[in-house]
Amino acid sequence: MSEPLLEVADLTVDYLTVAGAVRAVDRVSFTVERGEFLGIVGESGCGKSTLLFAVAQLLSPPGEIVGGKAVFRGRDMVRLRGRELRHMRWRDYSVVMQSAMNALNPMKSMGAQFKDTLQAHGKSSAEEIRRRSEEVLRMVGIDTVHLKSYPHQLSGGMRQRAMIAMALLFTPELVVMDEPTSALDVVAQRSLMSNIKELQRKLGFAIVFVTHDMSVVSRYSDRVLVMYAGQIAESSSTAALFERPLHPYSRGLMSAFPSVRGPRRDLVGIPGAPPNLARPPRGCRFHPRCPEVMPACLEREPELYRVEDARVRCILYNGSANRAS
User: Fold this and answer.
1) Sheet harboring 322-323: ordered strands across?
2) Which residue, 22, 128, 240, 302, shows the most beta carbons closer than 10 Å to its own?
3) At what angle do helices 126-139 and 110-120 cross, to 10 degrees?
4) pLDDT single digits (tens) 160-169
5) C-alpha 240: how far from its chain's center?
6) Do 114 and 167 touch, CB atoms closer than 8 A?
7) In percent, how much of the chain has pLDDT > 70?
8) From the CB of residue 19, how many other CB atoms can be counted at a distance below 10 Å?
9) 250 vs 234: CA distance, rounded Å
10) pTM for the full model?
11) What band does 321 get if pLDDT is binned at 50, 70 and 90?
């Protein structure tokens, strides 16, 4: 088998505060294959976006990677510095932020921003810049006349599409996305996600997609990581997760997620709130909210166990399960 496009191993991120270090991402490991769509889900504050920023090397103080690695195309990005990372960004991997209005420069037209990105990576011909800029706008369904538009002149959905167009200027092998649909209405979400999936099929890039929207994950992702309190609670194929979620937290997320098929049922929320990561609970971090809690859950932090093709962090599966590598 070929090596994965991205291999993250024991990645650990702390936020350094006056009260001490807060561990936002705790020994997270996963891989992304070429052309794969990986969804990362969980409640707000579980570490999803911090994980994505750490992988993309976009963390800023007080965030700091304190352990682990993120190997992309054979190179550990955790150990790369300024110039090496700038050479890889946009060309080899790119990032689509949660709020395009904050990520785009309000003082420059879309065409000028595309031009800056292309020139930063060696494209100097005015004709080549114009042609490529028009090409990527057409890819995302935006009329090329909007190269002259400023971000505030575009709708929310168009701004997100423009960000995706910018991310595809060099046809990178990996695109990481931080909740790009969160500010859009459901019609715009469906249109944007269908466009992203079609571009992925056409161009073959891999996607790491952070979201709290289970409907987006169920429809578009190949695999899913469920995060809770800075750790992976469950990792599985999308079909397996929605058919038979293993972790009590995953089951809780499913119970809070409305289905368009099957009999009507009441939605059930997960009681309580996520823990304070400055003082996480002893043992399993989910035990204060878990309906299947046992005495051992309060004392021993569970490993990540392998159950068939899935991985799950729960002692319910300690019997016949194998420890995940």
Assistant:
1) 93-96, 174-178, 206-210, 37-41, 223-228, 231-237, 310-312, 305-307, 322-323
2) 302
3) 120
4) 899 999 999 9
5) 19
6) no
7) 96
8) 8
9) 7
10) 0.91
11) very low
Please name the amino acid found at residue 23.
R
CA distance 167 to 89: 9
What DSSP letter does each residue of 209-254 carry, written as one string?
EE-S-HHHHHHH-SEEEEEETTEEEEEEEHHHHHH---SHHHHHHH
For 145, the token pair is: 């006349």
Full DSSP string of 44-102: TTSSHHHHHHHHTT---TTEEEEEEEEEETTEEGGG--HHHHHHHBTTTEEEE-S-HHH
Q: pLDDT tens digits for 222-280?
A: 999 999 999 999 999 999 999 999 999 999 998 877 765 667 777 778 888 999 999 99
Beta bridge partners of 265: none
Nearest to 164 by CA among 230, 114, 219: 114
| Residue 19 amino acid letter | A
